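Fresh eyes needed here. Kindly weigh in on this sequence plus structure tokens:
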Amino acid sequence: MNRFTPLALSLSFAFLFASAAHADGAFRQSVGVDEGLAAGLDMMLLNSSLLRNGDNVWERAREGFQLPEVNADIVRRQERFYASKPEYFRRTLDRSRKYLFHIMNEVERRGMPTELALLPLVESAFVPTAKSHVGASGLWQFMPATGRQYGLEQTWWYDGRRDVTEATRAALDYLENLYGQFGDWNIALAAYNWGEGNVSRAIARLQASGQEVSYENIRMPNETRNYAPKLLAVRNILNDPAKFGVRLDKFPNKPYFVAVSTGKHMNIDIAAKLAGVSINEFKELNPAFNLPVYAHKNGRQMLIPAAKADKFQANLAKWDKPLLTWEVYTPPADSNVSLIASEHGMSAGQLMSANNLSGTSLKAGQPVLVAMSKDQRDIRPLDATDTALPESGDSATLLAQADAPRAAPAVMVASAQATPPTAPVAQAPAPQAAAQPAPVLAAAPEASPAPAKAVLVAAAPAALPVADADGNYTVAAGDTLYSIARRFNLGLDDLKTANQLDSNTVLVGQVLNVNKTLDKGVTLLADSRASQAQQDALLKVSGLQTSQRATGSVPAEYVVQRGDTLFSIARRFGVNHNDIQRWNDSRQLTRLQPGQKVRIQGL
């Protein structure tokens, strides 16, 4: 029997084959390696290798701190607030330990300031189920419409805004997009809190009055005014905890969780039992599921503590009982909780608890989760109810429709080349539910279930559509022109020019060419499954002018790109940011500008 390769075995090759993992993706194709699994292995190497700063995440964070201070008086006030509540601050940092290694990896991989990895402390205090009074949810506090705009699925079963890895991906996409619009990370943070439309209008008013555009000069609500200073205060405390009377315990620089996929629906309590963790701990890593079921779907991942991955696999392999003991029932007429509960051998309290119901009335067609029975009458397949929820009226206008795209707001770009604002999202028509669902048992177990096997996917991103052999990509639901450009490592303007696009609107089913020609005349078919390490290697070469490319110890000049930071450039070339400061005029590095040249030694 083919056995799942233990994590430890994979890690033993992490350093030995690190360079091979970053080689041209053509090798993978030549040997028939599945790209989804290959991406998982790439992420495993990234997650599991102790990075250059030793075994301490706090040290990693400090090396990447980049944000300039704004509203210093407010920052000082926020520092005093956090320092005056040491137990609260400590509890919040303790909660962060489950998530921060992963977030740091993603922030560093994108070359973003590492302060941004701490943003959930300001947004949600690292409580993954946090929900605001206005409806924002999750670690990163996404509103429903913004979540959908950045590809976070929201169904009866699942809310991607609370998914640890998916919401992190979406939040960093959003922040990158905002930085592309405004050219200033602190203003991007203001837009994350207040909305890019509000910030754009405030900047337009500022420009009309002839004032300089800066964070301090923009008129904004008090909550937004305090937003970036809160993050800067947290940064300052973590940068020098002794100064504020804060003691930081060592934070091991290794992954807290890995992602597994069984390919099956599963009770959450059974999944927790198989992993040997409490239900609460399981939910802390998998807070996106609204009901007591892990509703499997392509692209979704179950997060398990890394220390429990082998135990989960072993227990799952020998589990000989049903993995799922729930099914979906849809009342054909208006009913009540007590009646439906009694029909399915449950108490009213059990039914209400399982379905998070606050009232006792149920409308016709409203699905409810009930205990699985042999009677298949009025039972709906689980997958039939795992579709997008209808948008509320107050959020529908924030999403561009496929047939009537909304005009994007005008924005000002500071210290960067002009880039389009938030791109409209390509949306497919919502699937129509069948009038009378077929009476199929919801994911019922087989009479003699075969031992299940888990597949470790190492927190790899969900499989994405890819381009064909000619470099043509078909726009899928949820795509934006921005997300397509980033996926294929293309400039937004280059993508628009190559496809003769006059706007940022894309439609589901539209075909775009994503071939990219490098300056050496070699055509690269951008592969959406290529690892970021491969993309970094490409940028390392293509970011240098041909006449300036260096060999050996000859110095070279790197041309700064939009979104670069001193830290990201250092990481890209495998050097220390202090060395870059030594090789260059440090005064010119305090505020990098696109097109600026940075001297790199020893390439």
The longest helix spans residues 164-182. The first strand starts at residue 257 and ends at 261. The chain has a mean pLDDT of 75.
